[in-house]
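Researcher: First entry.
Model:
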Amino acid sequence: MKTITEFPRKVVEFPDMGIVMPDGCRLSARVWMPEDAGDDPVPAILEHLPYRKRDGTIFRDQLTHPYFAGHGYASIRVDMRGNGDSEGLMDDEYSEQELQDACDVIAWAAAQPWCNGNVGMMGISWGGFNCLQVAAKQPPALKAVISLCSTVDRYADDIHYKGGCLLIENFGWASTMLSFSSRPPDPLIAGDNRWRDLWLTRLENQSFLAPLWLKHQHRDAYWKRGSICEDFSAIHAAVLSIGGWHDGYRNTISHLVTNIEAPVKGIVGPWIHKYPHYAGPRPAIGFLQEALRWWDHWLKGAETGVENDPAYRAYVMDSVRPARWHPERPGRWVAETEWPSPTIKSQTIDLLPKGSRPAIVASPQNCGLAGGEYFPFTFGPELPGDQRPDDALSVFFDQPLLTEPIDIVGAPVVEVTFSSDRPQANIAIRLCDVHPDGASELISYGVLNLTHRASHEFPRALVPGETASARVVLDQCAYRVPAGHRLRIAVSNAYWPVIWPSPQPVQLALSAATLALPLRPLATGDETTFAEPEGATPWATEMVRPASSERHVDRDEKTGIVTLSISDDFGEVRDLDHGLVNGSIARETWAIHPDDPLSASGKTHWTQTLSRNEWSVRTETWAEMRSDAENFILSARIEAYEGEKIVFERNFEEKIPRALV
């Protein structure tokens, strides 16, 4: 990445600009703007997050927000209430209070003498979600949005449920937020006599969100609120949607470009869950330059040509050897002037010949361990590996060797006719690229709780032995399969630890299965290009402890239990400006017996540390999830320390009935 140190306008930073909400709650904002903005007002750009501007998102903030400010914007990074250096309490993600606070910050910014009255909102992940949801509320000053790694459907395409299956990330993310939100404000911001009171109040009111999310196992009103797919027409601001093929939110770009009536464009690269000016796998792109084109047009009225950009730009990845991490994905950029594209045709492939005997799917419960992380995040061994171990535990349908390469661009769909021996069953379908030597690379996958075959809102139990049909939509993808390779469609009824297992072992009998494969005419080279990445001066730090990442799969030969153990030490660093030292370690174990779905368990343990000179705090959080045939059983614990003295402890325990999950 090229570091830019000289900008068209000189930048001034305000590290703690207090923004008082109508109810009196003070939100802490870090603001960058041109030094002369008071004389020459500029548009504002808002990023509104719970992830702590002081020590959480500071790495990416330093690259991004001063860059925008140097090009004529007031760039505002707000700690949401109840997080970081802000006052108040947070009780859930995307609450009405959170969204209203963002609307109030937008109104506040638009009214400042240094603002020209036009505001944009941006963000990745949580910030990508809430900027779309805020746009749907239509605050008058909000003219444009850049949403990265986000979703349009909080139930069907988030970290909670997928295809009506319970994602393991539902518990994993609740455990993460329990740890994240346990940290105090910085005494240099909150005050030496006040930070501790704010911290203890925060801890006393902290929620463990997994039980709340598990109380809504179907697509009810809880999930509909904030799902912009309920009314795409509510968004009037111009939307630039960006995502990555190695991210969990790869479908959103297509959904937005297909459905939004406001101006909208989409870009999908080969990336994990990161901003694309520093993301991996490479190639990264000049995201900040692309963002400036968007902001300059919609917030300043400049003729940048963004309205004439292709509707959908996607990176078609070449076939590579399976690996848990790829520093680079060779391929090419393609561009579609409209999306869905009339150039993409669906090829139908019958996987089961008519008149053949049913294919019996009865996967061991540990099928899925080659699938990788739902959200690869650490530039480490989190991507899907060689799929052969999972293929061996699945029923798979190999296609003939390709005599010519093909470009798969879009969402593959598999229609199945089946019967089940249980009233609840899951199905997981993977599309793989099989190399000449047998190595199997994951292209895309989809999962479906078969009781949700007709509706996520009103699921119906299966009648054992009765024939039914279902449509499984795999994730969007853009992938070139070369000549001499073959396609494999692998079907299982377990996918651990991506989805929680059914309460009983299941046997599915597939009597018919048809793949609809979206094929695009073969791209001969890049059809669009991007500038090389740029950024402002990086965050200045001193490493105290290096980061490291480990993953192990172990089988206990005595008990048969298979355990995935994960340790992500995010290291510890000292900020060379204000001296704060922050560190974080996450540990997870996911265990299951191949023959027993009720043996499934997940455990997490997070450590957070903050210190400066003689001041130090630490929080430890633990959580555990298991289930019996009727209930999900959850527990968690927080411990908070000043130095080595424990100052707070709390336990959470809850049992939630299963509802066809």
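Researcher: Second entry.
Model:
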Amino acid sequence: MGVGWAWAVAAALSAAPGGVQVVSPLVKVRPDAAPKGAKEARLSAARGECEGTQLVLPPGVTRVTMQPLALKGPGAPLTVDAWREAYLDVKTPSNGEGKPGPWPDALVPLSAPANPRHPTVVYAEVCVPPKQAPGTYKGSLSAAVDGKELPAVPFTVEVQPFDLPATSSLPNSFGISLYSIAKGHGIPADSPEAKALLREYGKTLLQHRVSAHGMGMDPPPVKFQDGRAVLDWTAYDAEMAPFLDGSLLPSGARFTTADVRDNRKASTDAEKTAYYRAFQKHFEDKGWKAQLFFYAKDEPKPADFPLVKAQSKRVRDAGGTLPVLVTTPLDPALQGSVDILTPIINCFYPRAGPQTCRTVANTATARTRLPPRAKVWWYQSCMSHGCTGGPPADKALDKAFSDWASYMVDHPAPLNRAMGVLAFESGVDGELYFDTVFAYNTKKDVWADLFEFGGNGDGTLFYPGTPAKLGGTEHQPVVSLRLKHIRDGLEDYEYLRLLTSLGDGAFAKTAAKRLAKSGYEISRDPAEWEAVRQEVTERIVKRQSAEQAKRSGRRTSGGTP
């Protein structure tokens, strides 16, 4: 990418009245805001990366249509996909920095019914295949609102000459459940339709660099013979193998993690240990690279510690390297029983005012208090926004719960995206998130109310795309803007990691700090995010070119490449 590359958010050009404005995806377009955008869409993407932008159309629209667009350049044409942003009417803000009223979140098909009282915003995205020829790809995007043609929008994508890995380099595990999906869509959980829909949800997560735990939930059937656990893997493999062997997507992307599904038929300590041993062996026999883990206990209280220790002992007795994951801050009482320590993000960053974690320690400090093979993950909880909802009367308490990296609908997009940059800067080994369809399992209308655990969207990153809601005849997962931001954050992590591998780790650390000094000091400025990405991209290209020239010189001089 050349130094003169004009990024969409940096080129703050006003579009003609009634036309289309191109706005950074890091701006949430609300009814009371009038963002200035650019007259053209200009994106940069690595091979194996997806990049999106927003097209703000005239208001008061009930129907949007768009002509298919293929961008032409030095390689195969690049396809532009598009969705309309649907709005969630927030009644109770997540905390003092949230606000009531409509917030953009669900990305629905353009053909879905629109609400003319909400802004008309299209999310347009380009995904670059792994072997795409680098260079400039151009086209012109044509749209119409309620049958009226709008001025065409020039659309340019600069494909960079480097690749991002198909599988996330940062292990992660986000919860999802067949039974919640079935309930949200109003179909029987044991139906072929529900199982096919689960695969679509899992596939969508994988397309966004996210791995899942839970999934079908049901453990493999087991029987015990001469102290051995004999498992029937037929149903499990049919469900999970495509996610673990890289056969589901053309890119070969795989889940980075998988959880052991405990089986109630393993009732004694010996049976449980045999069952865990068989689970590990199956993964080894299959050659699956995902980190298999045993999710022991979520946020255990002191009264739960004996249970955690007993679970850990049974896993240890199975031999192998199956790690035990516990969501807890550092606690001497659990020393030796936890292999993947997973505190909330608040536990990594000291902060003045009311404390939101009982033991604060950064990643390096945590590692000094853990066994050598232990990993440190983290997760977001309602402590990132306050667990009661709405701004508390105590302003100091509201501040303590504000500004954190957050997956809430009514928080700024940079807070939704920040976890990847923070993961790189902090050095954590992975991320956990408890659920992506939690609200499906409630009695509420997910499309109208995502308020859970004091936040709007806590535990829910999808919407149930039913025929009644979207039209047509098929059920489908509807992704949120927040899931796009999570993916972009994981891609930020890949850029910083790649630059570090090329010998420029000091700049990568500095770049990460410019965007997020801590878990609650995150830049809200889209222009800053775009500028940092541009600088990191340029340095990757420069470093990679120098490395290639060095290797070419060695070959020319007869040296060993």
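Model: Note on the second entry: Residues 1-17 have pLDDT under 50 and may be disordered.
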